Hints:
By secondary structure, the protein is of the alpha+beta class. 36% of the residues lie in helices and 23% in strands. The chain has helices spanning 12-25, 69-76, 104-113, 116-124, 134-147; strands spanning 33-39, 45-51, 54-56, 59-61, 79-86, 91-98. The strands form two sheets. The protein has a four-stranded antiparallel sheet with strand order 2-1-5-6. Strands 3-4 form a two-stranded antiparallel ribbon. A hairpin with a 2-residue loop joins strand 3 (54-56) and strand 4. Helix 4 crosses helix 5. The longest helix is centred in the N-terminal third of the chain and has 14 residues, at 12-25.
Amino acid sequence: MKAQVSPRPADPIPLFEQWYAEAVATGMKMPEAMALATATRRGVPSVRMVLLKGFDAHGFVFYTSYRSRKGHELARNPRATLLFYWPELDLQVRIDGRVKKVSARESDAYFRTRPRESQLGGWASDQSQPIGSRQELADKLAKIESRFDGLDVP
Length: 154
């Protein structure tokens, strides 16, 4: 097996910024997609795909419902791993670290940028919870749409 490992720079953010820009420039589908691995307090891992919404010297930003499985896991065990895989560049980037919530103000500002359908869907869907049927979800969405008809979705 042959592996190429890049040395870890003192400040990896500029290198990530360069690689991310290259990934975007290729035109690949969803270069912002990243795997997020969390674990329970007992160390039982789980992984799912989320979207990068921003990054800087303070960290990498993604959003989730605090009531989702990942929200609960991160509240109890605030360590996670992110993995970007960009096959067009023959690159993957792994980021390990401690997770903390962004401010409520920043979270609310992001929510307001989402399309209305996505905002309503966020209210209708209990992330990570099983649903009885597609119709059950559609009915719940219809109730939420009616509830917020003509109003901003909080």
